[in-house]
């Protein structure tokens, strides 16, 4: 399967307008944003766990990165409430689920295969002091990519000119960018060389962003 697999084009997906699609596990549904592959895929997805649902134990051969958007995600490593950022690098394993239900934004098979740095962070706790109405937390940085979380006051601008591509998820509020209005759940991917200028709407915005990573995009090595 290929979905939004042309990394040379600008892509906007208003995820909250998409239908939920069932996963192989009962009670776990998905909204796919981009994908290369079948059930084993380089993928970016919104995943919803119904109360008491879970996946069977599995190993993330290509790594897993996710944000908890609402509810509480759980596995044998602990409870992960909304606002948590998690990196499970290649070779890590778990049995994910949720007693009360949750929604996560998750990226699979997008790691350096030698990365072994597993961690979790509460995104809001990492925020630096705001500058011109924008407070930003650096969640992760390596030779391939930078991952940040930003809170924007109403009318504030977030700009980036990273040559390696830019990807943004609107967690709350809204921004305008490139003629598009991006509300809660909207996902934007800009190709290599395309700059970002996002202006927050009247309620401000909370944004997750990844930059520099698109030169490394490729199908899973299976």
CATH architecture of the largest domain: Sandwich
Note the total helix count. Answer: 0
Looking at the structure, what is the overall shape?
Answer: globular
CATH topology call of the largest domain: Jelly Rolls
Considering DSSP H and I runs of 4 or more, what fraction of the residues is helical? Answer: under 10%
Description of the molecule:
By secondary structure, this protein is mostly beta strands. The protein is globular. The chain starts with a strand and ends in an 11-residue tail after the last strand. The strands form four sheets. Strands 1, 3, 4, 5, 8, 9, 10, 13 and 14 form a nine-stranded antiparallel beta sheet that branches. Strands 2, 15, 16, 17, 18, 19, 20 and 21 form an eight-stranded antiparallel beta sheet that branches. It is built from no helices and 21 strands. The chain folds into two domains: about 100 residues, Sandwich (Jelly Rolls); about 90 residues, Sandwich (Jelly Rolls). Strand 4 and strand 5 form a beta hairpin. The mean pLDDT is about 95.
Keywords, please?
single chain, mainly beta, 222 residues, RmlC-like_jellyroll, Jelly Rolls, eight-stranded antiparallel sheet, ChrR-like_cupin_dom, RmlC_Cupin_sf, nine-stranded antiparallel sheet, ChrR-like cupin domain-containing protein, 2 domains, 56% strand
How is this structure best summarized?
This protein is 0% helix and 56% strand. It is mainly beta.
């Amino acid at each position: 399967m290929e979905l939004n697999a042309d990394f040379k084009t600008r892509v906007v997906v208003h995820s909250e307008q998409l239908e939920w699609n069932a996963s192989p596990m009962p009670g776990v549904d998905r909204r796919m944003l981009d994908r290369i592959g079948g059930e084993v895929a380089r993928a970016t997805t919104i995943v919803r766990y119904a109360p008491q649902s879970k996946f069977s134990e599995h190993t993330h051969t290509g790594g897993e990165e996710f944000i908890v958007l609402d509810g509480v995600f759980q596995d044998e490593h602990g409870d992960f409430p909304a606002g948590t950022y998690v990196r499970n690098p290649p070779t890590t394993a778990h049995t994910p689920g949720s007693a009360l239900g949750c929604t996560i934004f998750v990226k699979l098979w997008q790691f350096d295969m030698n990365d072994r740095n597993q961690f979790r962070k509460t995104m809001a706790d990492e925020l630096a002091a705001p500058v011109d109405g924008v407070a930003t937390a650096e969640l992760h940085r390596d030779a391939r990519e930078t991952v940040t979380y930003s809170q924007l006051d109403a009318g504030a601008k977030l700009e980036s000119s990273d040559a390696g591509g830019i990807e943004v998820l609107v967690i709350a509020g809204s921004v305008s960018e490139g003629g598009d209005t991006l509300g809660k759940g909207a996902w934007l991917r800009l190709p290599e060389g395309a700059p970002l200028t996002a202006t927050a709407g009247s309620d401000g915005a909370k944004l997750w962003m990844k930059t520099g990573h698109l030169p490394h995009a490729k199908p899973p090595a299976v």
